[in-house]
Every structure is written in C-alpha cells, then in structure tokens.
Amino acid sequence: MTTPRLKNILTLCLQALSLNLIVAQDASVSHPSGIYLDPIELSFEYDQNYELRYALHGEDPDSDSYLYTNPLSISDRSIFENTISEIPTTPLDANPNLVWKIPESKILKSSIVRYALFDGAIQLSPIKQLEYFIGETFDEIEFPIVSLNVDEEGLFDYETGIYVPGKDYDDNPNIWQPGNYFNRGDEWERIAEFSFFFNGEEIIRQRLELEIHGGASRQYPCKSLRLQAKDTLGNNRIEHPFFSNLTKSSFKNLILRNGGQQFNKVMFTDLLMHELLEEKDIETQASTQVVVFLNGSYWGIHNLRERYDKYYLEDYHNTDRELIDYLEIAMLFNDKEGSSEDYQALNEELEMMDLSDDEVYQSVAKHFDIENYILHHISNAYSGGRDWVGNNERLWRTQSPGAKWRFLANDYDDGFYTYYYDAYEHATNDEGESWPNPEWSTRLFRSLMDNEGFAQMYRNRLEELLESTFASDKVIRHIDSLAARYRNEMPRQIARWNYPPDLDFWEGRIIDMKNFAAWRPSRLRNSFYERFPKLLESDRVSIFPNPTSYYSQVYVPSHLNCQKILIYDTQGKLIQEQQYLGSLMTKLQTYSWSQGMYFVHFFNQDGELISRKKVVKQ
Predict the structure, then answer these.
(1) Residue 450 resides in a domain
(2) Among candidate residues 414, 413, 406, the one with its CA nearest the CA of residue 375
(3) Which residues have a Cβ under 8 Å from the Cβ of 405 and sit 6 or more positions away?
(4) Which phi and psi (to 5°) does residue 34 adopt?
(5) Phi and psi, residue 519, nearest 5°
(6) How far, rounded to the nearest angstrom, does the alpha carbon of residue 210 sit from its chain's CA centroid?
(7) Residues with Cβ within 8 Å of residue 112, at least 6 apart in sequence
(8) Would you say 112 and 131 are in contact if contact means Cβ atoms under 8 Å apart?
C-alpha cells in the first residue's frame, strides 16, 4: 500500500522531474483569490495552442481533469451539504467533554480551483490554486483567514489519517492518548498548501509541512497544527509580519493552536498569560487570532502562534541553533536539543545540599538566570494551574561556558479556575510520586527558598507583580479585551464544533476568569506568607491595585489585629468607614469616588492606628 508519506515523496519527485518539461507557459485570471460579496465569473487567458485543465475540490489537476472552455461560475458553496466536517475526529465513546459532535447546520465553505496548462498528457505549467470566499457572511469574519489544502486521505484515512482516531484507537482503545493523532514522526507529516488572507485579500501562499501539535489537546475534536517551511517545498521560511507586536517577519515554524485544553471553554487562557508577560524577562509566544478553512470547510478559531524550538531561540538570542540545550519536563526529562545531563545531575545533588549557606547557594544559582526563574515560578503560581511543576516546564541555555538555564512561559491552559488554590502548598510538596508534582520536580524551589537572600528576592518580586502585572484591574481589562476580540466569531465556532456548549456558557466562563483575577492576588499573597511566615514584614499593609478604578483589595498581616478601616479625602473629610473582614473578604469599593488621592487608616481592636496608606483613584 502507498502510504501518505511515500505519496508525498513520490509527488515531490515527479514534480522535480516535470520541471524539465515545463515551459514558460502560464495563464492569467480575471479574479484573484479573496473574499467577494457576489458570485463571480472566473475566466482565464492563456495560449490557445494548449489546454487549461482544472479541478474544483482541492485535488491536483491532470490531463484527464475538467477542460476549460467557458468562464466558471463561482458562487457561495456554503449552501451545499457538509463533507469533511462530518467526519468524526474523536472516538464516539470518548469523554462527553471531548467527543466529536456533528455540526448544527451547513457550515461556511470556500471554492477552490486548481489549474495548470497541458499539451496532451504533458504538464506545461506549475499547478496553481485559487480560492474564493463568496457572500456577505465571509465579510463579517473579523479575523484573518488561514486556508489549508491537504490530501484528504492523509488527514482522514482509517489507517493513515492523522486527524482521526482510526486504526490506532480500535487496536488499543483507552481514555488516554487514543488514536492516530497521537502518532509522531516522518510518516505522520503531511504536505499542505497554506495561504493567508488579510482584509479579504490573499497575502501569502506556499507549501508547508503539516503535523498534529500538542499533548493532551490532541484528544479534542479540533486539533492544533504545526506548520514548517522546507527548502524541498519551495521556501525555507514563512515570510510575513503576522504579529503586530513583533518586528520579526520570518518564521521557520508556526502553530495553529486550537485553544489547547481550553478549546471547549473560553479558548484564550494561555494566550492571556503570554500577553500579560509579553514585555517581561521571559520568553513568550506571539500570536494572532485567525479563522481556519481546511480543504474549503470552516474549521473555526485558532491562534496562529510562534513555536518554541531551536529556530525560535536562534532568532531571538542570536545564537547557533545547533549549540543549545533545550529541555522539556513532562514527568520525565525530555531533551529536545542538546543535553540536560548537567541539569538532572544538579537536581539530584540538591537533596544533599544546604542552600541556607550562601556559598552553597551561589554554587547552584550560577546555573540559572535567577530573575527569570522567579518570574516563571510566580506566573505559574498566580495562574493557579495544577499541571506543573512536574509537567509543562520548558527551559534552555546555550552551550557556551557559564551559560545559564532560562525558563519559558508555557501552557497556562488549566489556570484561572480556583482563585483560592494554594499554589505554594502545591509547589513545595515533597511527598509527590506522580503527576503533577513528583518530589524531584519541587526540589529546586524548596532548596532555593532555604536561602534568605533568594527568599527575600522572591517575596519582593511577588509583591511587585501582584501590584503591577497581575493587579486585578489590569488583568480584568485584559480579559475584557480578549473576550471582545473573540465575541463576534464565537457563534460560528459554537455552531461548527458544539464547543463551548453555547454562548452563555462562554460568557459565564469569562465572568469566572474576572472573578479569579479580582481575588487571586490576595489569596496568593496569603498562601505565600502562610507557607513562609518568616518573610512577612511586621508592618507591611498592602492595598492593590493602587491606583484603582473600581475597587482595591486590602491585605493586613493577621497579627496586627486590624478591625476597622476609615477613608479620608485630602481635605480630611471622612468619606467611607468599614470593618476589616480579613484579606480574602475586605475590598475598598472605589467606583463611586471622585478622581484624586485618598488616605486609608487602619485601626486595631483597641482603636489604635496601625497603618496609614495613600490610594489614588483614576
């Protein structure tokens, strides 16, 4: 049997051989690819000594394909019955939260025309592709459109299709990692015709290598896809400034992310954290929202993102990609590039080290970019996810003498759920034996926190981040901004996949995330000081965010026995009085205040003033 991989190789070989036969012949077209509000009549101009052959369903034309004689009427294909969108992409007995569901109605469809010139059986010109999105509905799509045209057998065949459970699932059905889509390697890579449409016009088209991307998210009906440029496919890079926040416009690899394990919920939790950390001392992945069409069928919202790999690190750090160590921790130490032997050996040695001794601490700290590590750790603690420290860790270094390990922001999908989750109990667990935090995975943080200098550095950075990057008002505004980007496209996403269940569910999840953002700083602060009470400053009273817009959270160390809070304006007039209910309960409601400065007085049970703070209302 000819496998899809072998078929790809044979196709490339035949195309290479045919270059000697192709002469300088081509056809011009009346309508370039893009979005058109009304049907079009597509015509070609070419040398009439030859034949123009075309195909209409994404396949390559040959000498037996349709012969062009008259203009082609191209109209909205969305009225036709669904095709590949009705192929199940998960086992039908999968978890109800993961199982594929048939689209609610006929989905949007584009029209694909592939054509070439022939002299009898001899192909004279390269095969070219046109794609048309006909109708007003396409004009309503606010995101750029990514179109992928891939051999359907390579995607959906029972034995070799990379997008279906297929034979692999039937041979070994289980609830974890079932299906063809969990296979990796050359045999599970496919060739795709990739095109990018912006403002209704095709900006870039090229052939890329495509494979399924991700870990557990492969179980969802919609999969993440990895795209790689290759010389053998005509281009070594994907050249376009996809991301507005980058000056970079050349990419070896890109990802079309399905929303990860948030696919069936809000879709953008991981994206939120990357954007919050964008200008911090940690690697993040730039992204932009797109709508994908797969073989002409609407495939829904994806995040077009950079991919962490040796090419990413080479581009951003001006280093030789062949001279780096890149490690992924996923319950095991997985060397993606180079070697992590030094890291593993150091991790084992930590069991016998006393890092309270500054000399010992320095011998360990020289292996890490400490400020980067602290930011990485706090970002995971803040997000409240459970799928770390033994999983989803990414770190790298150059192989030059004295190079330090740096951590990358990675996979916050399971965050923003339970604001009161005790991240520091999780991160200091020394009895774990399996997922998510076996003992060896928390060893580095536990050891570092034995050192007074590191612990104070960590505390100071935590306080700073909770009042800036992770300040409630700021995070809530960012959640609202992301929700606004997605909102208009979500009804089509839901109709296509039946995930999330409905728009109300999605809106409710956004409210949950905003509630998390409102309460998380106080809970994380409490969790930290409960775990490390020696770091609690005896007179440290905090109000955050400050400046404020709608409300601020109050934190007072419990031993100060705060009972009452009085707020005065700059004229000394009392404008608000309330009881202190503990840092998890007490908020200053500031939405009714006029803009300006205010003074907040804290009193203990004996009526004594224990602290005085300034608050600015924006």
Answers:
(1) no
(2) 406
(3) 343, 367, 368, 369, 373, 395, 396, 397
(4) 155, -170
(5) -100, -20
(6) 18
(7) 56, 57, 58, 129, 130, 131, 149, 295, 296
(8) yes
Give the model's pLDDT for residue 176. 67
End-to-end CA, the chain: 69
Q: Residue 439 falls within a domain, yes or no?
A: no
Q: Which long-range contacts (CB under 8 A, 24 or more apart) does 590-595 make?
A: 590/548, 590/549, 590/550, 590/551, 590/552, 590/615, 590/617, 591/549, 591/550, 591/551, 593/617
The Cα 410–Cα 408 span in angstroms is 6
In one-letter notation, the amino acid at residue 464 is: E
Which residues, at least 6 apart from 364, have a Cβ–Cβ distance to it below 8 Å?
346, 350, 353, 355, 447, 448
Three-class DSSP category at 126: coil
State pTM to two decimals. Answer: 0.86
Report the pLDDT value the prediction gives residue 539, as an integer from 0 to 100.
Answer: 61
SS3 state at 122: strand
The amino acid occupying position 53 is R
Percent of the chain at pLDDT > 90 equals: 83
**CA dist list (Å): 443 to 160, 304, 428, 514:** 42, 35, 8, 33
The candidate with the shortest Cα–Cα distance to 447, out of 340, 333, 352, 359, is 352
Per-residue pLDDT tens over the stretch 563-580: 999 999 999 999 999 999
466: burial class by Cβ within 10 Å (0-12, 13-18, 19+)?
buried
Q: How far is CA 435 from CA 138, 170, 389, in A?
A: 44, 27, 9
Which one-letter amino acid corresponds to residue 605? Q
Residue where a domain stops, chosen among 84, 113, 137: 137
Q: Which of 372, 384, 345 is nearest to 524 (CA)?
A: 384
β-pair type (287-294, 145-150): parallel
CA distance 30 to 487: 36
Contact 141, 36 (CB under 8 A): no
Distance of CA 402 to the CA centre of its chain: 32
Residue 476: CB atoms within 10 A of its CB come to: 19
* CATH number, residue 612: 2.60.40.1930
- Report the range of poorest mean pLDDT among 154-158, 356-360, 550-554: 550-554
What's 119's domain CATH number?
A: 2.60.40
As a whole number, the mean pLDDT across the chain is 92
Q: Is 410 inside any structural domain? A: no
Could you give phi then psi for residue 182, rounded to 5 degrees? -95, 0
Contact present, 324 and 398 (Cβ < 8 Å): yes
In a domain, 560, yes or no: yes
Query: Which residues have a Cβ under 8 Å from the Cβ of 363 and sit 6 or more positions away?
Result: none
Local confidence band at 17 (pLDDT 50, 70, 90 cut-offs): very low
Domain final position from 87, 114, 137: 137
228 SS3 class: strand
Q: Measured between alpha carbons, how far is 283 from 419 in angstroms, rounded to an integer?
A: 25
Confidence of residue 299 (pLDDT cuts 50, 70, 90): very high
Residues recorded for the chain: 618
C-alpha distances in Å from residue 375, one per residue of 223, 287, 394, 518, 552:
30, 21, 14, 20, 24
Domain range for 548: 537-618
Instruction: Report the domain count for the chain.
Output: 2
